[in-house]
Amino acid sequence: MCARVAVAMSGGVDSSAAAFLLREAGHDLIGITMKLFDNGDAGIQGESACCSLDDAEDARAVARQLGFPHYVFNFSRPFRTQVMDRFVCAYERGETPNPCIDCNRYLKFGALLQRARELDRDQVATGHYVRLEFDGGSGRWLLRKALHPEKDQSYVLYSLTQDQLSHSLFPLGGLSKEEIRTIAAEHGLINAHKRESQDICFVPDGDYAAFIRRHTGRDYPAGPFLDQTGRQLGTHTGIVDYTVGQRRGLGVSSNQGRLYVKELRPEDNAVVLSDNAGLFARSLTADQLNLIPVSRLDGPLRLRAKIRYRMAEQPCTVEQTGPDTIRVTFDQPQRAITPGQAVVFYDGDLVVGGATILKGEP
Questions:
Q1: How many CA atoms lie within 13 A of 231 on its CB side?
Q2: For residue 38, how many other CB atoms are within 10 A of its CB?
Q3: Cα–Cα–Cα angle for 14, 177, 10, nearest 5°?
Q4: How do 270-274 and 223-226 pair as beta strands?
Q5: Which residue, among 297, 282, 303, 271, has the nearest Cα to 360 in the 3D structure?
Q6: Which of 190, 248, 269, 304 could be cross-linked to 313 through a Cys-Cys bond (beta carbons 3.0 to 4.6 Å apart)?
């Protein structure tokens, strides 16, 4: 059945190929490019790796070629409050967030979906590599991994609600990146061979701490490096400069050998260090739980989970402990369970849900 679809177009090959496939399927399309931030907000000189004029022009050219209208809308205000500010606040709390998850939750499937509805569009489509299906038995929408694991992006979409999923289209979930580039090249799309951006769009140089200082205009005081017994080993340069598992740039030596960041304690401005063995934990607690195929877990469930985007899933037991909280216990200890990151759990290729990690526990 044909739908009235707003296609999120970044200017890259994935969203352009998604638009092509939707047009071929007979859908009524408009393209929308989201201007997410002003370069000055991120302290970027010139064009960034994302949201540039060139990206918008590439998206516009593809829309023109495919024969549908294209619009650029300014979403910089909600992006600043819902993504950049959240990113900064998490670091100040001693957490390490994933801003792509917030961007999907609040912008691409939040603010953009609302704008699409105002433009009388039934669906929002993106170039994410995931698959979507409706389960008639439960009456719920299901999110599944991409057919090609190397491109699967389900980890950053676990937070989508049933309402958001019901108004979403993901045309690329069954295709490989090579197939997408071939489709784009064969049909003359100008960005068929465009390079992918691997960085957080508003921190293209990867210096998160420098971005945070620019964004807030604040300095972050030095404080103690402590070992696990509370003995001071040295002085750190500010709590936002570190993340759990970090080894480089500590400037501290010890007779224990290599040291790593084990814990960030903003309440007393301390960074706790340990050897590598001290980074491992068997379980974690997490909140802001979102479940997709069910509304609640009735009891402990055997699943597989991962605690960061690029890692292999690990067997575990997941138990819901409150309205939006869970405990995940892994069969084997996991290294550097990091507060602020997402834990996402799967049953085969089905995304059961995910949550934001509070802490790892022995």
A1: 6
A2: 14
A3: 15
A4: parallel
A5: 282
A6: 304
The span from the CA of 150 to the CA of 133, in Å, is 21
Instruction: For residue 123, give both structure tokens.
Output: 């669906």
In the prediction, which pLDDT does 48 show? 44
Largest CA distance in the chain: 67
Q: What's the pTM?
A: 0.93
Q: How many CB atoms lie within 10 A of CB 310?
A: 6
What pLDDT is recorded for position 242?
A: 97
Q: Give me the active site residues, please.
A: 103, 201
| 123-125 and 168-169 beta bridge pairing | parallel
CA–CA distance, 19 with 191 (Å, rounded to integer):
13
Give pLDDT, residue 47.
Answer: 43
Which letter, b or e, does each residue of 161-172 get, where b requires 16 or more Cβ atoms within 10 Å of its Cβ?
eeebbebbbbbb
Residue 42, amino acid? A
Arithmetic mean of pLDDT over the chain: 93
**Which pLDDT tens digit goes with each residue over 270-309?**
999 999 999 999 999 999 999 999 999 999 999 999 999 9
* pLDDT higher than threshold 70 for residue 44: no
- Where does the pLDDT of residue 45 fall: very low under 50, low under 70, confident under 90, or very high at 90 and above? very low
Distance CA 319, CA 302 (A): 9
Distance CA 176, CA 105 (A): 25
**CA end-to-end span of the chain, whole Å?**
51
Distance CA 155, CA 174 (A): 17
Long-range contacts of 147-151 (CB under 8 A, 24+ apart): 147/173, 147/174, 147/175, 147/176, 148/175, 148/176, 148/177, 150/176, 150/177, 151/176, 151/177
110: tokens are 């939040």
| Range from 22-36, 85-99, 252-266, 276-290 carrying the lowest mean pLDDT | 252-266
